[in-house]
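hey so i finally got around to running the thing on that chain from the lab meeting. sorry it took forever, my laptop kept dying and i had to restart like 3 times. anyway pasting the input first so we r on the same page abt which one it is
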Amino acid sequence: MNARRLAAASAVAAVLVTLLADPVAAQSVSAELINGLNQELLIIAVPITLLVEGILLYAVIKFKGNDDPKPTKENRRLEITWTVATAVILLFVGVASYGVMADENVEFTGGEEEVAPDENDVLIQAQAYQWGWDMSYPNENVTVSGAGQGPTVVVPANQDIYVNVSSRDVIHGFHVPELGMKSDAIPDQTNYIKTNASETGSYQGYCSEYCGVAHSQMYFTVEVVDQAEYDEWIAEQRGS
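ok and heres what got predicted. didnt touch it at all, straight out
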């Protein structure tokens, strides 16, 4: 019995730590939306998990020595209750998920005319190939390259960023986990990602789709800086 109590107490403590722990501050509006959805779904999932596991443990302990089990009697109220509860939970999950997935900072579906509409918006073209990335700023006539860890693209903080993702050969994947940016790079197809980075710093990006023997070498870096530093960097790139 002591072992059971210890296991139960450990499970409850783990759940409480999970629920009460402060999440890491989001580095972009995209990451904030995704992390917020994860927190909401966790708040729903944990009580349901505890309830189901509690009922399971109760049944195992209470009826483990029952040599003559009887069929469960029909309980219409209970059946209606759990059916309605399930429908409400699924409705909440669907509405919450749609609200995030439909946001343009998570899934950008706008047309070409909606890409970088404001003067200070940044547009980056990220074209994948076996095995690397061509990164450029078409509006600034700037191209970046790099060896080892791949190219480094510089973007301003607190400004809308649009990334044009494509591939010249096979399917690749553009992924910057800390910024909540992810999109497939598909031959003969263009996908756009939009975000707004709020925290300056360096963020690792990589190819998220296995694309051949050197797939693991397809790294790149996103450097988020303040607007003045970004403007200075663009001027330096134009002059080089």
